[in-house]
Amino acid sequence: MAQHAPQHPTHVGEIPKPNTAWIWKTFWVITAITALEFAIAFVMPASTLRNSIFIILTICKAFFIVAEFMHLKHETKGLIWTILIPMSLLIWLLVALITEGNAIHKAIF
Asked: How does the record classify its membrane topology (predicted)?
């Protein structure tokens, strides 16, 4: 009977090379969004449109952080929707409260 050599020889003390490509991809995406935010901050005058763009870009950065570093994108769709739907309703509530607060402030003063 012939001896079979192992397919993948193991060496004592060998450490596998880390897979950091996804970290760098996320880093560059977040860096690009941040650079875009800085460009908008220096080019656009202060307005509701600029603030809305900042909020949208910040939510995009938060999405990438949660998806990559908290591994949400690897979860089941049900869990993802369970987290996203209440969060979107909370954001809608904040926008509604800020809008109403501005309307009351303008009406009083």
From this structure: Multi-pass membrane protein
Q: Are 72 and 83 in contact (CB under 8 A)?
A: yes
φ and ψ at 43, to 5 degrees?
-95, -45
Place of tokens 């809305």: 52
pLDDT digits (tens, 9 = 90+) for 25-54: 888 999 999 999 999 989 999 888 888 888
Q: How confident is the model at residue 5 (pLDDT cuts 50, 70, 90)?
A: low
Are 57 and 51 contacting, i.e. CB atoms less than 8 angstroms apart?
no
| CA–CA dist 12, 88 (Å, integer) | 50
Rounded average pLDDT over 6-19? 70
Q: Alpha-carbon distance 24 to 28, whole Å?
A: 6
Mean of all residue pLDDT scores within the chain: 83
For residue 59, which amino acid is it? I
Q: What DSSP element (H or E) covers 97?
A: helix 77-108
